[in-house]
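call fold(seq) -> tokens
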Amino acid sequence: MAKISLVITVKYEKATLPTQTRKPDEVIIIDAYQNNKTLNRSQGRNLGVKRAKGDIIAFTDAGCIPDKNWLAELVKPFKDKNVQVVSGYYRGSPKTVFEACLVPYVLVMPDKVPEQFFPSTRSMAIRKKLFVETGGFNESIDPGEDFEYANRLNQLGIKFYFAPKAMISWRPRKNLREAAWMFLRFAIGDIQAGILRPKVKLIFIRYYAFFFLFFIHPIFTFLAIPYLIWSIAKNYRYVRNLRAVFWLPVLQITSDLCVIFGTIMGALSKTK
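ret:
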């Protein structure tokens, strides 16, 4: 049986690992503060892997709560020697209506899981040999380092094995300010990593078209109404609370604007 090393990075947090049916052979917790230097998540995870002795590296974040069978389900596919990377899954664990409305904006919902499910460091595992050979996480990127790394692996032709039962619970941001900062930082990180998601292109097209029509005639402002209705219709089924009728459009507009400004800021930072 291959040895399993679990790597967790922490910053102002406590690492939480409930009892697992399959215990890791070692747990490596990397504090963001090392020798009077602050590490970002990419640097912390790379350092953790460097110190790891296991053949398989499992990752989760300090703010995530794994199910008791999480690690067992995550490493089970590695019985097949051809499996190199396993993408675990995650669920939102909201405590307020606002947090419940935020979940579909930041997590991949069960009915929207793509055929090739990219791994997230909330719940993923990789063979150490492959991690080392591919250079690990890009230490200039934080956040969004796991998405950049997954894209890099995908371009190399590495296939991801999806393990939907390797489940962790994640609590969303608690308020609109924290959510907006998260949207902004991830948008900046994507562009700095050279990634322009198709959804981002659509957002720019939507807002360009809206403002173009608005300048033709202000009556076109009413086009915003069906857009706001759409923001409710697409995600209300995940919340099913009347207060979501307010929060879902607010989050849609907030995320749109943060993505636009974050993309521009990321592009400008790359030109410096």
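Residues 148 and 195 are 7 Å apart (CA to CA).
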